[in-house]
Amino acid sequence: MTNPPSLTDTVLEAVKSLYPEALADKAWDNTGRGQTQYSSGTVLLTNDLTAAVVDEALNEGAKVIICYHPVIFRPLKSITASDPMQAQLLRLIAAGVSVYCPHTAVDAASGGLNDWLCDLLLDGEAAASKTVVEPIKGSLPEGHEGCGYGRAVEFSNALSFPDLLKRFSKGIGGHRYMMVALPTSYKKDISAIPPISKAAVCAGSGSSVLRSTDAQILVTGEMSHHDALRHASLGQIVVTVFHSNSERQYLTQRMKPMLEEALKDSPHANTRVVVSTADSDPFDVIDVESL
């Protein structure tokens, strides 16, 4: 009798079916996995791998961690516990926990992060059009033809700048504060901003992907100082919320239910999938006057 596939193999097969590795930006991105095999256990989803997340994973009995951002970003010649990130990897290795990091495959995929960001701005309305900002060249897996990085969406009904910000805030978890680069003509009076008919989105850092878009408003996690100045000088508005705040809620709203559905007909259909509550953006906004 053939043994059923391990939990690790089953989960990774499901994740790769949702976010094929062929979509990842191999020029700089690192996707990868560990080799530990288990017959059952919990799967933990997280945006980043920190000491707090590792504590949570071990307490939850997680056997597989799907970590959106790569844990190893640059080549390593050795692993040492004196490095904070490597120390967390050593803890997971000792506990036999596998880690897989799909990153830009999630950004580019159909139904992935950037499609979700568009949906937040649409708030249930149909788009007049939605296009990929930076398509991936070459043949792509079935169901992901024409995919790539970033999205541009034209609204069937133009919406006000405040309404767009409120939609975005609600979708990413109710963040009250956003960093916005405005053209000079709007700095003293945002009511002068005309209705928004076209927006472009890019999860995480949008500087390179959104550089050539003609959208009125660019929505991303972060953008470099000089790129923000450039877009403002072109009459465009840049909205940022800190890098991972543009990504994190996707795990709860989309990745978790999609993974549970993908596992439904597998030998591990009853696998518990949880989203980290310890994971958070490294930046907080502090009101100095309240100190």
Automatic annotation (TrEMBL):
A Pfam family it matches: DUF34_NIF3
SUPFAM superfamilies: NIF3 (NGG1p interacting factor 3)-like
Cellular component, GO annotation: mitochondrion
Keyword terms of this UniProt record: Metal-binding
Molecular functions (GO terms): metal ion binding
Keyword Repressor attributed: no
Gene3D superfamilies recorded: NIF3 (NGG1p interacting factor 3)-like
Record's keyword annotation contains Coiled coil: no
PANTHER family given in the database record: NGG1 INTERACTING FACTOR 3, NIF3-LIKE PROTEIN 1
Homology family: Belongs to the GTP cyclohydrolase I type 2/NIF3 family.
The protein's name in its UniProt record: GTP cyclohydrolase 1 type 2/Nif3
